[in-house]
Amino acid sequence: MKSLKTLGQFIIEKQADFPYAKGELSRLLRDIGIAAKIVNREINKAGLIDDILGRTGDTNVFGESQKKLDVYADEQFIAALKSGGECCFVASEEQEEGIELVDSGISKNAKYIVCIDPLDGSSNIEVNVSVGTIFSIYRRKSAVGEQLTQEDVLQCGLDQVAAGYIIYGSSTMLVYTTGKGVNGFTLDPSIGEFCLSHPNMKIPETGQIYSINEGNYLKFPQGIKNYIKYCQEVDPESKRPYTSRYIGSMVADIHRNLLLGGVFIYPQTALQPNGKLRLMYECNPLAFIIEQAGGKASTGTERILEIIPEELHQRVPAIIGNTEMVDKVLEFIANSKTISYV
Ligand code: AHM
Ligand code: MG
């Protein structure tokens, strides 16, 4: 019988792969894993507790109403990063301004910056459908002791030293990369540990799943409309029509496509010229993971990981999946000549 390898054991074993001070990034990843378990516990009992489930009445920086679990997850991850002492700055989807932690005693020598969406897919919480946490880790560019700068906070996706997601689904999984492949860990609730279940994850080279909110069809650019029609055509040789699968939780949609092959698309629309999804804590970390698994991530015109961010909550269109399918979408976009929405 094979022995279980826990996330903690795996991180320590892989420390040698880290380019910088090894123990610090390990501790940071471990802290995120612990907060994930706490959040998972609350999500699992969400339907039971009126006080936890439901709206707080507050709105987040985008004017969207926040559910209590969003707020809870935000608090848990920030508290874990604060008390862990390895993170000097955290940017969260739920906070308009990033939070500097350098002054909080234990973090005064911290070298890492974390961008996090504490609970993504929040419209799915109340209906018992998978939600996720997405995180991205950078190393500060300025020296410890100096004032943090824009260059520390707004780094491009290629500078990520690690990224990951937690999917709170039929089982809870943590999937992460430090730039040397992707590994997935499933939470074993009986021992309360994430255990290595999906070593060296690779996205299949071909896929037959497309994931897009087709309700917005009329507002999509022509190239995306044409691609959707292509997916629906009957062509046994290319196994079309493809299957449409859209959960509305980006983590869950990307996770499924990572395992089965597929493309996730959230394009710009007539109403949202930059799409809906955020670069720093949604698209960049998932792009890093999918590229590390052998796939591709583009806005339609550029590689997501190469974008130089201008602001923390920047939005970008996203086309993420196995390379063959992403390339096909890009071909349709390039051939549609205009970005016309008609
Ligand atoms: P959120 O951060 O408010 O939860 O929004 C992000 C989510 C993604 O997980 C998902 O892919 C997308 O919004 C779904 O949006 P839509 O309902 O417009 O299809
Ligand atoms: Mg989100």
Characterise this structure.
With 342 residues, the chain is an alpha+beta fold. The protein has 2 domains: 192 residues, Fructose-1,6-Bisphosphatase, Chain A, domain 1, CATH 3.30.540.10; 127 residues, D-Maltodextrin-Binding Protein, domain 2, CATH 3.40.190.80. The chain is 30% helix and 22% strand. The chain is built from 8 helices and 15 strands. The strands form 3 sheets. It has an 8-stranded mixed beta sheet with strand order 4-3-5-6-7-8-9-10, sandwiched between helices. A 5-stranded mixed beta sheet has the order 12-11-13-15-14, with helices on both faces. Helix 2 runs antiparallel to helix 3 and helix 5 packs across helix 8. The protein is globular and about 60 Å long. It binds 2,5-anhydro-1,6-di-O-phosphono-D-mannitol and magnesium ion (MG).
